[in-house]
Amino acid sequence: GAPPGGLYSPGDPLVLLQVDTLESSVLNSSSAWLVEFYASWCGHCVHFAPIWRALAADIQEWSPAVNVAVVDCADIANQKMCGKFGITGFPTLKVNSVCFVPPTDPGDSIQNLRQSIITNLEMHKETWPPACPPLEPASVEEIRGFFQTNNVTYLALIFETNESFLGREVTLDMLQYENVAVRRVLSSEEELVKKYGVTAFPSSFLLINNGTFSRIPVQMEARSFYTHFLRRLPGVTRGPYMPTRAPDTPIKTTPIPRKPADRSKVYMADLESALHYALRVEVARFSVLTGERVRALKDFVAVLAKYFPGRPFVQNFLRSVDRWLRNVRGSRIPYSALKLVLTNRKEGQAPAVLSNNVTWVGCQGSEPHFRGYPCSLWTLFHLLTVQATRHHSGQKAEDPLEVLGAMRGYVQSFFGCRECAQHFEGMAAESMDKVRSVDEAALWLWSRHNRVNARLAGTATEDPQFPKLQWPPPELCHPCHSVVKRRQVWDEAAVLQFLKAYFSPINIFLNYTE
Ligand code: FAD
Question: What value of ipTM does the predicted structure carry?
Answer without folding.
Answer: 0.99
